[in-house]
C-alpha cells in the first residue's frame, strides 16, 4: 500500500512539517510500506491540491491536524476523497480531542493518541477490505464505528525508528529533534497536557529517550549531511534535571553542535543554565504567557511569581544564552489592566526576542471546557478561523477592541525593537524593515 501524508499550511507556510507524520513514516517504512509526503502551500487552490495528491496514486491519505489547520483540511477532504477514491485518516491534537466533528466532516478514520502501531493495523484492515464502520482497532475510530479502546503508549521510545527526515523540510544543516513525549504540568491552556489525561488508564504517557538513542540519531544525521544547529522541540526540555545534566555531559563531549530548546522558568536553575551553555545551548524559548500572577495562578494553573521570570531571564543572559519570551492576551476573566501587566513584565525581563498571540481555546483543554461552560464559546466556533490575531470568545471582561489595542501595542513594540536593532541600515532600509515586521504581525 502507498500512503500519502499531506501537511496543510495555514496563515503562512512554516519551515518545518509536523513531527507526527515523520515518526509514522519511518515506522511504516520499516514494514515495507511506501510512504510519501506533500506540503500544501497556501497558494494551491483545491484543484491543484487534488492534482498533486493524485499524482502520488495513494491508497490511503493521512493528515496530522492542529485546530489551526482544521478549516482548510475540512474543506479539502471531500473533494480529495471524491477525486482520488482513497480513504482519509486524520490524527494529531484536533482529531484526538474532537473525533466526532472530524468524522462528521467526511474523514473516514480518526487516530486518537499515538499512531505508529495503530496506523500499521489500519493499513492491514484496509487491505483486507474492511469498511470504516467495521474497523475494531485500538486508537482508531472509523466513521460510523464505535469509540476505540486505547493501547498503552510505546515504551521505551528507543524502540521507535528515527524520524523520516525527508518529511521535515530541513535546510542548511538545521535539524529538528524530540527527546520525549508527554508533559507533567497541568496548564489549562495546553492540549499537550491532555494526552496524559487521555492515557491515564493505559500507562504513563510521559517517556524520554535514552541519551545514547538521541546521540545515535544526531550522529546518523551528521553522517548523511551537514549538522550545524539542533532545535529541540520538546515542550519542556528541562523537566528532569538528572537527565539534562547527563545530556550536557555526553552531548558536550561528543558533539557540541549549537542548539536551542524550550523551557519553563520553574524548571531551570542558574547552575543548569551554565551547564547548558557549556554544552552548546545558544537559545531558549520560555512561555511567559501572562504578567498577571492571578491569571497564571487561577486561570492557567501556573503558580509562579513574576520575580522568577525576571531572575531566570537575567540568569539566561548571564550564561550567554539568547532568550525568547512568548505571551498571550485575551484570556478568560482577563482584564485590560491585566493585559497591561504582561506588557510591564516584558519591560522587566527584557527578552532578546518575543512572540505574542491571542488566546484560542483548544478542544480537549480545561480552558476550552471552562469557556464552554461559561458561555464564552460561540456556537460556530469550529467554523471560525483559529488565528493568532483575534479572539473567537465572547468575554465579559474584554471587548474585541481591547484585544485589538493590546495586539497593536505588541506589534508597535516589535517594530520599535526591530528599528533599534537595525543598527547602521539606511533610514529607508530601516523603514522598509519595520513595515515588513508590521505586515508579518498583521498576517499572523
What does the model show?
The protein is α/β, with parallel strands linked by helices. The protein folds into two domains: 2-142, Rossmann fold; 174-326 and 334-354, Aldolase class I (TIM Barrel). It has helices at residues 19-30, 46-55, 67-84, 93-97, 99-104, 116-127, 192-198, 211-224, 241-254, 270-279, 293-299, 306-318, 336-349, 366-373, 400-421, 427-442; strands at 2-8, 34-40, 60-64, 88-91, 109-111, 140-142, 174-177, 180-181, 207-208, 229-232, 259-263, 281-289, 322-329, 353-358. Helix 15 runs antiparallel to helix 16. The longest helix has 22 residues, at 400-421. The protein is globular.
Q: What's the short story on this structure?
A:
The chain is α/β, with parallel strands linked by helices. The chain folds into 2 domains: 141 residues, Response regulator (Rossmann fold, 3-Layer(aba) Sandwich), CATH 3.40.50.2300; 174 residues, TIM Barrel.
Radius of gyration: 22 Å
Specify the number of helices.
16
**Architecture of the largest domain in CATH?**
Alpha-Beta Barrel
> What distance lies between the first and last C-alpha atoms, to the nearest angstrom?
38 Å
CATH topology of the largest domain: TIM Barrel
Numbering strands along the chain, what is their spatial order in the largest sheet? 2-1-3-4-5-6
Structural class: alpha/beta
**What spatial form do the alpha-carbon principal axes imply?**
globular
Q: What is the tally of beta strands?
A: 14
Q: Any idea of the CATH class of the largest domain?
A: Alpha Beta
Amino acid at each position: 500500500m502507498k500512503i500519502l501524508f499531506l501537511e496543510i499550511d495555514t496563515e503562512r507556510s512554516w519551515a518545518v512539517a509536523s513531527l507526527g507524520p515523520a515518526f509514522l513514516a519511518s515506522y511504516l517504512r520499516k514494514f515495507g510500506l511506501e510512504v510519501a509526503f506533500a506540503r500544501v502551500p497556501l497558494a494551491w487552490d483545491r484543484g491543484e491540491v487534488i492534482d498533486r495528491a493524485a499524482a502520488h496514486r495513494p491508497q490511503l491519505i493521512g493528515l496530522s491536524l492542529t485546530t489551526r489547520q482544521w478549516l482548510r483540511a475540512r474543506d479539502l477532504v471531500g473533494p480529495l476523497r471524491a477525486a482520488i477514491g482513497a480513504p482519509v485518516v486524520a490524527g494529531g491534537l484536533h482529531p484526538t480531542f474532537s473525533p466526532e466533528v472530524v468524522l462528521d466532516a467526511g474523514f473516514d478514520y480518526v487516530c486518537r493518541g499515538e499512531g505508529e502501531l495503530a496506523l500499521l493495523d489500519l493499513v492491514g484492515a484496509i487491505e483486507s477490505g474492511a469498511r470504516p464502520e467495521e474497523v475494531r482497532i485500538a486508537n482508531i475510530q472509523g466513521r460510523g464505528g464505535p469509540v476505540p479502546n486505547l493501547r498503552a503508549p510505546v515504551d521505551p521510545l528507543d524502540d521507535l525508528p528515527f524520524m523520516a527526515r525527508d518529511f521535515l523540510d530541513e535546510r542548511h544543516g538545521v535539524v529538528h529533534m524530540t527527546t520525549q513525549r508527554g508533559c507533567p504540568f497541568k496548564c489549562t491552556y495546553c492540549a499537550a497536557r491532555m494526552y496524559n489525561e487521555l492515557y491515564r488508564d493505559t500507562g504513563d504517557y510521559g517517556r524520554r529517550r535514552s541519551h545514547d538513542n538521541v546521540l545515535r540519531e544526531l550522529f546518523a544525521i551528521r553522517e548523511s549531511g551537514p549538522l550545524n544547529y539542533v532545535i529541540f522541540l520538546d515542550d519542556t526540555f528541562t523537566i528532569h534535571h538528572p537527565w539534562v545534566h547527563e545530556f550536557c555531559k555526553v552531548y558536550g563531549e561528543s558533539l557540541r553542535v549549537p542548539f536551542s530548546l524550550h523551557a519553563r522558568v520553574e524548571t531551570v536553575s542558574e547552575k543548569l543554565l551554565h551547564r547548558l551553555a557549556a554544552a552548546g545551548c545558544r537559545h531558549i524559548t520560555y512561555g511567559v504567557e501572562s504578567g498577571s500572577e492571578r491569571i497564571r495562578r487561577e486561570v492557567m494553573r501556573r503558580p509562579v511569581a513574576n520575580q522568577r521570570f525576571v531572575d531566570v531571564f537575567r540568569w539566561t543572559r548571564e550564561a550567554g544564552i539568547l532568550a525568547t519570551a512568548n505571551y498571550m492576551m485575551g484570556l478568560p476573566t482577563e482584564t485590560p489592566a491585566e493585559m497591561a501587566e504582561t506588557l510591564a513584565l516584558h519591560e522587566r525581563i527584557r527578552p532578546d526576542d518575543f512572540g505574542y498571540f491571542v488566546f484560542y481555546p483548544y478542544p480537549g483543554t480545561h480552558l476550552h471546557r471552562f469557556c464552554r461552560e461559561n458561555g464564552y464559546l460561540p456556537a460556530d466556533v469550529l467554523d471560525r478561523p483559529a488565528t493568532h490575531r483575534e479572539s473567537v470568545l465572547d468575554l465579559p471582561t474584554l471587548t474585541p477592541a481591547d484585544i485589538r489595542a493590546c495586539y497593536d501595542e505588541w506589534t508597535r513594540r516589535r517594530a520599535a525593537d526591530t528599528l533599534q536593532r537595525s543598527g547602521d541600515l539606511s533610514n529607508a532600509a530601516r523603514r522598509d524593515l519595520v513595515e515588513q515586521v508590521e505586515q508579518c504581525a498583521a498576517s499572523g
